[in-house]
C-alpha cells in the first residue's frame, strides 16, 4: 500500500527564528562554567540560526565595531538586548536603572537590534532561594511598576529607537496569567509590549496560545522553550527557586515538554505581524559539549513546524 501523502507544512513566514547565549548555558558576563563567547558564536551559526540576542551585558564584546565584525563574519544578526529592572521600587531606582539600560540599549541599537527585553527583578535569589522581598506587590508598587515601565519604554524608544518588551519570568512579580493581565491592562499599548516566554509562562501556569489570542496586539516578541511537567511538579512540591529548578532539568528540549510549540507558532503567525521567536534553552550550568547538539536538533524541529 502506498503511503498516504501528507499535506505540506505551512511556512510561518512572519516568524524569524533565533537563539541566545542562554541556550548555551550563559547567565552571567563571566563564569568558569560557561562556554567562551567565540565558541557560542561559532556554534550558534553552525546550528543553523541567523539571529541572536546579546545575552548578559559583557559576555559578548561591548565594542560595537568589534561585535559587528564578529557577528557579520559568522552570518549572524542581533535581535535584542536584555536588562533586569526593579521598577516597582519607585522613582528612587530610576537613575541606577537608566544607567544599566542605557549601556545595553546603546549596544543593541549599534548592533541593528530593534528590541529591548525587560525582565522584572527576582523576589527571591535565583540560586540560594533567599527571600529578597514580598512575593506579592502592593497596589502602590503595581502603580510604580506600570508608570515607570511606560517611562522606560518611552525613553528607550525616543533615545535608541528600540521597542521595550516586558518578559514575564519565574520568581518575579510578573510571572503568571493574573500578573501579565494586570500589567498589560495598566500600561499604554503604544509603549509597552510583551515578550512571551512559552517556558516561563507554562512554568507559572499560563497558557501561551490563550494569551496570544487574548492579548495578541500586545505580543511583540517570543522566547521559545518548554517545561518538563514531571520535573515541574517536583519543583513546585519542593518550592525550589528558579536556578536550582533549571539545574534539575525543568526546562527541557523541544518537543518533549509543554507547551506544544506548533499551536503557539501558528497563533503567532495568525497575528499577521513579523515576530522574532528566539530559542532560550535554560540549562545553566551544563557541560560545554551539550548545547550545540540540542540547539541543532531544536532548529531542525522548528523547521519541521514551518519556522
UniProtKB/TrEMBL annotation:
It comes from the Bacteria. Residues 41-303 form the Xylose isomerase-like TIM barrel domain. Signal peptide: none annotated. One of its GO terms (molecular function) is isomerase activity. Keywords: Isomerase. The keyword Isomerase applies. Gene3D superfamilies: Divalent-metal-dependent TIM barrel enzymes. InterPro entries: IolE/XylAMocC-like, Xyl_isomerase-like_sf, Xyl_isomerase-like_TIM-brl. This is Sugar phosphate isomerase/epimerase.
Amino acid at each position: 500500500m502506498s503511503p498516504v501523502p501528507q499535506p505540506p507544512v505551512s511556512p510561518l513566514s512572519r516568524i524569524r527564528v533565533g537563539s541566545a547565549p542562554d541556550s548555551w548555558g550563559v547567565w552571567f558576563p563571566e563564569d568558569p562554567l560557561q562556554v567562551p563567547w567565540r565558541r557560542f558564536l561559532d556554534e550558534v551559526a553552525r546550528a543553523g540560526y541567523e539571529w541572536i540576542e546579546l545575552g548578559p551585558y559583557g559576555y559578548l564584546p561591548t565594542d560595537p565595531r568589534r561585535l559587528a565584525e564578529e557577528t557579520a563574519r559568522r552570518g549572524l544578526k542581533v535581535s535584542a538586548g536584555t536588562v533586569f529592572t526593579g521598577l516597582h521600587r519607585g522613582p528612587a531606582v530610576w537613575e541606577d536603572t537608566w544607567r544599566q539600560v542605557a549601556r545595553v540599549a546603546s549596544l543593541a541599537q549599534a548592533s541593528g537590534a530593534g528590541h529591548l527585553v525587560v525582565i522584572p527583578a527576582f523576589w527571591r535569589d535565583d540560586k540560594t532561594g533567599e527571600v529578597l522581598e514580598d512575593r506579592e506587590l502592593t497596589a502602590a508598587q503595581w502603580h510604580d511598576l506600570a508608570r515607570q515601565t511606560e517611562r522606560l519604554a518611552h525613553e528607550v524608544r525616543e533615545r535608541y529607537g528600540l521597542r521595550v518588551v516586558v518578559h514575564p519570568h519565574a520568581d518575579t512579580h510578573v510571572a503568571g496569567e493574573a500578573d501579565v493581565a494586570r500589567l498589560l491592562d495598566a500600561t499604554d499599548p503604544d509603549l509597552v509590549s510583551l515578550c512571551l516566554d512559552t517556558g516561563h509562562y507554562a512554568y507559572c501556569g499560563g497558557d501561551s496560545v490563550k494569551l496570544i489570542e487574548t492579548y495578541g496586539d500586545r505580543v511583540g516578541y517570543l522566547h521559545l522553550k518548554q517545561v518538563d511537567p514531571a520535573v515541574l511538579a517536583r519543583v513546585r512540591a519542593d518550592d525550589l527557586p528558579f536556578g536550582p529548578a533549571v539545574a534539575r532539568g525543568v526546562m527541557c528540549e523541544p518537543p518533549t515538554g509543554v507547551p506544544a510549540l506548533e499551536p503557539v507558532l501558528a497563533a503567532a503567525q495568525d497575528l499577521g505581524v513579523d515576530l522574532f521567536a528566539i530559542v532560550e534553552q535554560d540549562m545553566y550550568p551544563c557541560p560545554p559539549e551539550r548545547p550545540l547538539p540540542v540547539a541543532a536538533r531544536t532548529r531542525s524541529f522548528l523547521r519541521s513546524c514551518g519556522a
